[in-house]
Each structure stands twice: as structure tokens, then as C-alpha cells.
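Hi U.,

Before I forget, here's the chain from the pilot set. I'm dumping it here mostly so it's searchable later in email.
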Amino acid sequence: QVQLVESGGGLVQAGGSLRLSCAASGIMFSIKTMGWYRQAPGKQRELVASITSGGSTDYADSVKGRFTISGDNAENTVYLQMNSLKPEDTAVYYCNIGATTRYGYRMVYWGKGTLVTVSS
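Structure:
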């Protein structure tokens, strides 16, 4: 059974920091990407940051320079260090893992989400 366990969300004042973690278990295929998405009330889910198994990273323009994604391939864990948080960063943050089967099919897994609230 696949499980993505997220932790680290919470309430923080503007300018503060939080670190999100996502530990994946039960994935039997080759993990290619790990990342974080977020969804604010009334808005669509958007990519925040992603990292490939080779270490390449991608960030939304709104978080560049403030957020850092890192991953531990051996532990199937992905982290998101969030600094200089702004009220507009308030959202539910979802862990996302992309894997590929031996036949080349792409599998996508989602966590249940962790709430980040940034007060002004």
C-alpha cells in the first residue's frame, strides 16, 4: 500500500520559516520526480517546487529565492524549506511523487496535504 506522509505544516508569522517533509513508502516503481504543490482557497492547485532523481530542481517564480526543495532518494523523502514566508503562501501543500513502471507507464501519487497558514 502506497503511503505519502506529510508533516511540518502549521501557523507562522510573515517572515518566518517552516520545513515540510514527505516520506513515501510502498512505491514499487522507479521514482523519477518528487515535489510539492499547493492550493489556496478558491484557487487551482499549482506547482511550488520539484526535484528529479538526478537532483534537478524547478520552482514557481513566486517562491524562487525563498523556498528550497531537497530529496533523499534512499529514503524516498522530499523536503521543502520555506523561508521569508508571506501571507500569500497560505495554502494546503501537497506532496507529489512521479514514478515510472518497468513498461514506461507514469504513475503519480499524492499526499493528503498539510496546511500552511502565514499570518500578517
